Task: structure prediction
Amino acid sequence: MTQRAMTSALSLANRAALGIFGVMFCIYLLGPILAFIPMSFNDVALLHYPIERFSLRWYSNLVASSEWRLALLNSVVVATSATVLATILGVCAAFGLWRGRFRGHSIIMVVIMTPMIVPSVIGAISMYFSFAEIGMDYTYSALILAHTAMAAPIVVVTVSAVLARFDGNLLRAAASLGADPLLAFRKVTLPLIMPGVVSGAVFAFAISLDDVVVALFLAGPDQRTLPVQMYMRSTDLFDLATAAAAAMMFIVAVAMMIFLELLRRRDRLAPVAKAADSRR
Amino acid sequence: MKPSVEFRNISKSYDNQTLVIRDLNLSIERGEFLTLLGPSGSGKTTALMMLAGFEMPTTGEIFVEGQPYSALPAHKRDIGVVFQNYALFPHMSVAENIAFPLQVRGHGPKDLDRRVKAALDMVRLPEISARKPAQLSGGQQQRVALARALVYEPKIVLMDEPLGALDRQLREEMQIEIKSIHARVGVTFVYVTHDQGEALTMSDRVAIFRKGVIEQIADPQTLYDRPCNAFVATFIGDSNLLRGTIVGRGGGQATVAMPGGGTLDARAGDNGAGKDAYVSVRPEKIDVSAGCIDRGVGNILAGTVDKTVFFGDHVKVSIRLEGGQLLAVKTGTTEPYKNGQTVTASWRAEDCVAFTAPPTRDTAVVETTVQV
Ligand SMILES: Nc1ncnc2c1ncn2[C@@H]1O[C@H](COP(=O)(O)OP(=O)(O)OP(=O)(O)O)[C@@H](O)[C@H]1O
Ligand SMILES: [Mg+2]
Result:
């Protein structure tokens, strides 16, 4: 064997090993989910394979059950409201931090990031007691406000990332042309940072949808969200409607990931760069 | 008539310690093309930014047509600005960029179209209105920025090194273009540049900045012929700066003794009482001839040819004077000089100025500022 053939054979072996490792890692990551979800199509209320008869009865149960319908509605309402609030707050905070070169800038950044780092059970307990103290426990408002606080930091992160590439001279230009700061923000800044705003909003939605811990503490039976409902049903009388709900949430999550990836690609093709960059 | 712009006792500090503009007084006439010229960091951009409303003066007041402007926010000033990187809105088409100031002012769609079209015609770019800035060349972006700054007929247009990013040929074309637009629209232009050639060819007046202070403000001809100090003399155009000692004064004239022997008659450039003299003389004002001929025309210095460089339409000869200083001469003659040959340099007394202060206050004076 020649030297070159040997190296290529080696690299072939390497590549095969890498491929096998990659596949196994993916199975490790996704295996449980991919094993669980198909059971939602099993006609029998048993968690085992093979699937005896294919059926959509758990899905129709899901839709028929007022309890599940309420949970779904709660999740949509809470996640949407929290996303809107978190996005507005996050964009304002990111823009303010970008504008102001004041002292304590980095301290504020750390404070804003804390909710992302603190274990959620700590946040949940503290919020539970705080809201209870002011008589707001077991309300939609409390749950929405809590999710807003949890989701706003990620919006600050994604918006700050696009603002880092935003040319501040554009705002001076807008001002010189007669636009007041609000108009300049709406017409110039916002369109240019939109990719960051949208991806922040998607992440915010995902954070709200993902939460069980805080909702367990703050939600009464009327505010029970989809994940809480799934958790409750898995621990008491288990039926495969939970698997059906899981399947639906999984699809939503995958759709959001695909959306973010498409957004990222579009952003790369039409970057929020300064017009000047194309000149250099 | 009130001046278009007036800076009155303006000082500016960014850090409350060092002043980057020091007690600036400046009056700009309506319709004037004024250029701020000076070395890097001399405060040109700062002066412009204060006029545009992006920076606040630390002390003093800026008046525009007699109104105090310092407290007025930028978007209420009605002053057009062309930025060095153009600052075109990348998400808007060329037409939308130019329409922006009109929309802000609430113009109707018909009026908008007409004015955008007229502005594009003015900068000779009627076909590209649908394109995005990223699809334009540097020169085209420059024109669009100019059209956008002019379309709403502001009182004043400010430009901060607008041609800095263009190659030389395009820069010269744009200089002519900007100048002709200025002549047509007749608004006040305040222009910042590093490039003294640009300043001389385009401006009605040029203000020479150094370290936050205007050294001289005058029309290009005066600036070139009658610089008020050695800094301006060497900053504008090429100039020799010969060191000597003042031995006589009177009637606006000074007599300077050269270290290598001989004396020069010169205009007195300032009222300094010092003995040190810095005599400024332009290379193209000097005649050079072979040998040691006294032609009786004012100043005569003898020396030897150090170097000759041929430029096509002229020749630059570097002469080592007696006493060691170098003198650059620009001559049209094709007479060949050999290195080491003895020559005589002569010029009229009114073509040279004697200053008592060196061009830079804090560094040693350079022997000659012209490199051959
Ligand atoms: N935003 C700022 N904050 C602090 N210092 C500044 C700021 N802008 C300018 N300076 C300082 O002020 C001085 C004058 O700067 P300015 O930008 O006005 O100079 P300039 O004449 O425009 O120079 P250049 O030809 O390099 O553009 C410089 O020393 C600069 O470092
Ligand atoms: Mg500058």
